User: Fold this.
Amino acid sequence: MKSRGGKDKESSDSRYLVTGAGGFVGGHMIDLLVARGHKVVATDLMESPSPDLPEGAEYVPADLTRPESLEAPFCAARLRKEGLISG
Assistant:
């Protein structure tokens, strides 16, 4: 699938950070992204990943209510400042 700029939207160099990796929606989102060839950094409160975490997804534990725990998953995902949503 092509975007307006002519680039392939399903590019495997895309990297996504998925929070709530141990939950229903987060788990399915990870499966979908990995199946499409994307790199995924998964995060949740658990110290170890769910046994269902697909191969190709990296797990980094974090607590979204503790800002100091967020540096590792954001660095692992290598998110650019422009890609963050503030609110």
